[in-house]
Each structure stands twice: as structure tokens, then as C-alpha cells.
UniProtKB/TrEMBL annotation:
InterPro entries: LOG_fam, LOG_family_nucleotidases. It holds the Pfam family Lysine_decarbox. Coiled coil: none annotated. One of its GO terms (cellular component) is cytosol. This is LOG family protein.
Amino acid sequence: TGKAKPGDAAYFLAYETAKLLARAGFTVANGGYGGTMLAAAKAVAEAGGKTIGVTCTAFGRGKANEYISREIVTSSLDERLETLIKLGDGYVVLPGGTGTLLELAKVWELKNKGFLRSDKPIILVGRSWKPLIHLIAAEDP
């Protein structure tokens, strides 16, 4: 979520998760702006890793945060989402808002329909996703 601030649990979780990914040698791609995106990018930069920020001119927010190694500028939300998905060898989903939910839903559906390789994991971090997963699984076993 773009609203998390230093000291918030979501910010800390993003920072710690990204730090582990960077130490394992992964490049971390995200939306490139503030909140948990900034926390993750900062952790990766401090661990000596690489980050990709996929920003969107339609948001009118300007450039990526200062910890992004490489910025990819897109012109629409759909293009941004497609770019993030194409970049991923796996998908780590932190607690978030409707934007994060959209990203999870798209990746999950693409994987269910066989449009993403089966070896690309979706990793849900935290407990906030559990009720949603149970709800969907009950409807679509």
C-alpha cells in the first residue's frame, strides 16, 4: 500500500520481506512509489540489491522513489499491471488495498487458466489474505 509510513507494521513487513529477497539475490519489482513500495525498495538498496519500479503517468504522481534502480514508466494501469506480471519469476503479495487485491486477482487468475508458468509461485505474506483465500476456495474448489 502506498499509505504505509515508517513505524507502521505494514512498512516494517515490506522492509523485512524485501531485505530477505535481496539477500537471496532476487531483483524486487514493485509500483515504485511510496509506502510499502518505498520500504521494500529501501531495504533492497540497503542490502545492495536491485529494484525495478513500474510507475504510471495516469496517476500523476511523478517519478519513482529514490531507492528504485530502474524505472519503467507506463501510461495506464493495465500496462503497469501487465509489465509487473511479465517481470515476475514469482509474486510476493504483501497486505494492501484494492490495488494490491487487483494485482493478486490478476496473477491468480492467469495462473489458474495456465497463462503463467506453474513454477512461478504466488506468496501471500501476513494473515490478512487468509479469509479471502478461504472465501474464494469455498466458491471455486
